[in-house]
């Protein structure tokens, strides 16, 4: 079954401790419901360094990257359906689905 990289980008999300704890709980419920289709739960990230031809460093990019997961689905549409109730979206985040070549 094809695998898709799901990347998490902030939107207009709150980041107070209670909101973050609630988000983790909601994610775990979503992950349990998604089952084996969630091939790799992934990881959240704290910081990122951008690398360009000018070197590496902290550079601002639109919608900061917050983490990643890998899902398995028959195709891109099926992958999108798996994510329609992802709790990250309800918190104002944006998910991008990337299909490897």
Summary, kept brief:
By secondary structure, the protein is α+β, with helices and mostly antiparallel strands. Helices cover 30% and strands 33% of the residues. The strands form two sheets. The protein has a four-stranded antiparallel beta sheet with strand order 2-5-1-6, with helices on one face.
Indicate the multimeric state: single chain
SS element count, helices: 3
Mean pLDDT value: 85
Summarize the amount of helix as a percent range: 25-40%
Number of strands: 6
- Identify low-pLDDT runs: none
User: How would you describe the shape?
Assistant: globular
Separation, N- and C-terminal Cα atoms: 14 Å
Q: Strand order of the main beta sheet, please? A: 2-5-1-6
String of helices and strands: EHEEEEHHE
Supply the helix-strand structural class.
alpha+beta
Give a quick account of the main beta sheet: strands, pairing sense, barrel closure. 4 strands, antiparallel
**Rg from alpha-carbon coordinates:** 14 Å
Overview of the molecule:
The protein has about 100 residues and is of the alpha+beta class. It has helices spanning about 15-35, 75-85, 85-90, and strands at about 5-10, 40-45, 50, 55, 65-70, 95-100. The strands form two sheets. The protein has a four-stranded antiparallel β-sheet with strand order 2-5-1-6, covered by helices on one side. The chain is globular. The protein starts with a strand and ends with a strand. The model has no long low-confidence stretch (mean pLDDT about 85).
